[in-house]
Structure formats: structure tokens, C-alpha cells
Design a protein that fits this description.
There is one protein chain. This protein has 450 residues and is an alpha/beta fold. The chain has 3 domains: 201 residues, FAD/NAD(P)-binding domain; 111 residues, FAD/NAD(P)-binding domain, CATH 3.50.50; 99 residues, FAD/NAD-linked reductase, C-terminal dimerisation domain (Enolase-like, domain 1, 2-Layer Sandwich), CATH 3.30.390. It is 32% helix and 23% strand. It is built from 13 helices and 22 strands. The strands form 5 sheets. Strands 1, 2, 3, 4, 5, 6 and 17 form a 7-stranded mixed beta sheet that branches. A hairpin with a 4-residue loop joins strand 5 and strand 6.
Length: 450
């Protein structure tokens, strides 16, 4: 396989989830592989994204669990929360994962180059050190970064990257955005005792998720004490004499807070990589345009993960990295199917979905069948908590084929993973009905829908 014309058979720029998987699999096929990473091995998900965030979500759940424990017979006197303990333990585990990912690459004989890499020729890469190397194939897996809205004083705010490193919890925090990152951090900080306000430039949360679930999350979030300001865009952020932040916005009064967190989407990391010199085509949002096999407009240059703007989810990047390596070095042409991808929002409570929403199904098919279960989980009943869960199944008229499943409630993401297999396999409502329930569980509602 080795081509002595080049220093490497594959040079990967970016050691996140997609880049690491592609590097490891390609090396396993016998390719000479190097991966360049200017930050830390592991990428957004492991270092400053879904993994540390989920640990904060776990920590936040204890706020309600400790309160609910009283009705289950537990006496817990004067519970206290120490942000620095959770923060430091989370960052310690991030270090562990960074080491594990590094070891994985080394064990597969992938050369790790901790430096910036830029394309400076058709097959040429120049490192930050000035060293020039060549590769027969190049994979761009540089991910994406948080978008920061343009307004005077925006440098006073933080993004999700910095949220994991806060010295102390802000008493009052303004979170900008209506997507999953905004709602997840809203739930986290609210449970930790911060006064949370979400502002969003539109009047909708979580576009792309089923409307019933979005409405339910909004109702529950308001009930938990989170404030919302819709149709609001930043005018300016100013620092006051006492160190607070005064935020002015459209359609609403000014607000004084201690921290502003931008959660307004993510931008593909394509700037300064030399892609224009290499002739790589970019889309209107700066994403790398690729075909179904992750090939760019240049035959020997590929891209996977968030930098392509296809689906910005870690498991998708991993699948794309695997498929790329199998196709190019394993002799097994593989294209990732980006349809029917399950996803979740780790809000309080979490919501999850797979397949078409009710609105999408009606727009496409017109006549459909929708089954719902609106119930109060058993644990909430005994705890005296009025919070209700909602499960929804969208089916084709006549055949009963399941087009989508959507749910909000405790452990929704855990339940959805198994349900997504059924939707992907094209199962019907009747087949769910024929499955015996596991009682008492929340998941049994999926086979009892009427």
C-alpha cells in the first residue's frame, strides 16, 4: 500500500472523533498515517463538548433527586453544592480521556503531530513549525466552533468552551440561543442555583424537534424558574462599574446579569487551512462540500464530521470516519446513511427523537396516524412532582409503518436508542403492539400506545 512518493499515505488534520476513527482504521489497513492536532486529542466532544457537559447534567440532576428523596424515606440534612469540586473532577476525567485517545492512536502506530497544519500544495502540508510534509490522501476533520453574534461588547461573553472552566457559578446568567446547547446549559445552571434567562432571536426553541415536545419543555422550564425572552437580538453588552454585564436587546428591556453565554450555533473550522489554494469547494456557510463518500471537489482530499455541515453529531462523525477508511484503504466502498438519525437534548427533563416529526410527516404524506401517551412517571408521583412526560409515535396511514418516535421525560435518550433501531428497521405499530410490556417502566408506554 505504501507509496514512497509521499511521506504518508494519509494525513489527517484534526484529532476529534471523526479524525481519530479514520486514522485508527486506516492504519489498521496498513496505511502510513499522521494526524495533526493543534489543541488536544479528542476534539470538541471529549474535551469541551458532549462528554464533560453530560457530566454536568448528571451533577445537576442531584438537585432534584436530593429533594425528591424525602418522600422516599431519606433524610438528607443541609446538602451543599461545590461547583469547584464538580468542575475539577470533570476536567480531570477529560484529561483521562485525552490520554486514552492518544494511547489509541499510538497503539495503532498513528503518528501524532501536536501542531497546526495548513495545505500549501496539492499533496503538501506545512506545519506550524515550518516543516513541510506530503501525503497521498488528506482528510480534513477540523470540526466546528461556537458562533458568537456580532454586537458591541460581545467579547464580554463566553461560549460553551469556557463554561467548563468558570471560577464560580454566576448568580445570574443570560444564555443566548434556542438550540440544544442553550437548553442544556439552562437546565444545568438552573439546577445549580443560578437565575437563568434564555433569549432567542426567533419565537421557537429546538427547531427540528417535534412541536409537542418543544412546547412541553418550554412549559416545564418555565415551571422550574427559567425565564425566556423571544424575538430578542443583541444590541450591546456593557460592563457596569460593579463588574456586572448590562445587556440591551430588541423588543425587551435591558437586563443586568453576571455572565452571558453564547449558544447560537456552530461554525465549521475551515478558515486558514489553505483550502482555497488546494481548490476545495466550500458551501455558503463555510462548510466543506463533499459527496456521499466524503470526497471533496479535489479527488485526493476528503472531509468528515462537523466541518462538512452535514449532521453535527459525534456518532455521525465517527461513522463517516469509519466509512472513509473502509472505502479508501479497506476496499469496502461505504457511504453513511444520514437519514433517520436519532438525537437527544439533555435538558431537564431530556427529550429525544428519531425519524419524522408529526409536522414533517403531514407535509409529506398528508394523512397519518399519531399515537400519544401523556403521563406522570411513577417516581414523580411519589415525589410529589407534577412534571409530566410525553411519548409520541407517528405512523403511516394504512401500513402502520412507524415514521417517527418522539419523547420527553426521564431517561428519554436511553430509551430512544433502542426505539431508533425499530424505526430504522421499518417496523410497524402492530409489531410494537405485539411486544409484551416490561412493567412498571416508562418505556412500556411505547408498546401500549392507543
Amino acid at each position: 500500500m505504501a507509496d514512497d512518493t509521499y511521506d504518508y499515505d494519509l494525513f489527517v488534520i484534526g484529532a476529534g472523533s471523526g479524525g481519530v476513527r479514520a486514522s485508527r482504521i486506516a492504519a489498521g489497513y496498513g496505511a502510513r498515517v499522521a494526524v495533526a492536532e493543534e489543541h488536544r486529542v479528542g476534539g470538541t466532544c471529549v474535551i469541551r463538548g458532549c462528554v464533560p457537559k453530560k457530566m454536568l447534567v448528571y451533577g445537576a440532576h442531584f438537585a432534584e433527586d436530593l429533594e425528591d428523596a424525602k418522600n422516599f424515606g431519606w433524610t438528607i440534612d443541609n446538602p451543599k453544592f461545590d461547583w469547584s469540586v464538580l468542575r475539577d473532577n470533570v476536567l480531570k476525567d477529560v484529561d483521562r480521556l485525552n490520554g486514552a485517545y492518544t494511547d489509541t492512536l499510538k497503539n495503532n502506530e498513528v503518528e501524532i503531530i501536536l501542531d497546526r497544519a495548513v495545505l500549501t500544495g496539492p499533496h503538501e502540508i506545512t506545519l506550524g513549525s515550518g516543516k513541510v510534509v506530503t501525503a497521498k490522501h488528506i482528510l480534513i476533520a477540523t470540526g466546528a466552533r461556537p458562533h458568537v453574534p456580532q454586537c458591541p461588547g460581545n467579547e464580554l461573553g463566553i461560549t460553551s468552551n469556557e463554561a467548563f472552566h468558570l471560577e464560580a457559578l454566576p448568580p445570574r446568567i443570560l444564555i443566548a440561543g434556542g438550540g440544544y446547547i442553550a437548553n442544556e446549559f439552562a437546565g444545568i445552571f438552573n439546577e445549580f442555583g443560578s437565575k437563568v434567562t434564555i433569549i432567542n432571536r426567533s419565537d421557537q426553541l429546538l427547531r427540528g424537534y417535534d412541536e409537542s415536545l418543544r412546547d412541553r419543555l418550554l412549559q416545564i422550564s418555565v415551571m422550574k424558574g427559567i425565564d425566556f425572552r423571544f424575538n430578542a437580538e443583541f444590541k450591546a453588552i456593557e460592563q457596569t462599574e460593579d463588574g456586572c454585564l448590562k445587556v440591551s436587546m430588541t423588543n425587551h428591556e435591558d437586563l443586568v446579569v453576571d455572565c452571558v453565554l453564547f449558544a447560537t450555533g456552530r461554525v465549521p473550522n475551515t478558515e486558514g487551512l489553505g483550502l482555497d489554494k488546494a481548490g476545495v469547494e466550500l458551501g455558503q456557510h463555510g462548510e466543506i462540500v463533499v459527496d456521499r463518500f466524503s470526497k471533496t471537489s479535489v479527488d485526493h482530499i476528503y472531509a468528515v464530521g462537523d466541518v462538512t455541515g452535514r449532521v453535527q453529531l459525534t456518532p455521525v462523525a465517527i461513522r463517516e470516519g469509519q466509512a472513509f477508511a473502509d472505502t479508501l484503504f479497506g476496499g469496502k466502498p461505504t457511504a453513511v446513511d444520514h437519514s433517520c438519525i436519532p438525537s437527544a437534548v439533555f435538558s431537564h427533563p431530556p427529550l429525544a427523537g428519531v425519524g419524522m416529526t408529526e409536522g414533517q410527516a403531514r407535509n409529506k404524506f398528508g394523512s397519518i396516524k399519531v399515537y400519544e401517551s401523556d403521563f406522570r412517571p411513577m417516581k414523580n408521583v411519589l415525589a410529589g412532582r407534577n412534571e409530566r412526560s410525553l411519548y409520541k409515535m407517528v405512523c403511516a396511514e394504512g401500513s402502520g409503518k412507524i415514521l417517527g418516535i418522539h419523547m420527553i421525560g426521564p431517561e428519554s435518550a436511553e430509551i430512544m436508542q433502542a426505539a431508533a433501531v425499530a424505526v430504522k428497521a421499518g417496523l410497524t405499530k402492530e409489531q410494537f403492539d405485539q411486544t409484551v410490556a416490561i412493567h412498571p417502566t416508562m418505556a412500556e408506554e411505547l408498546v401500549l400506545l392507543r
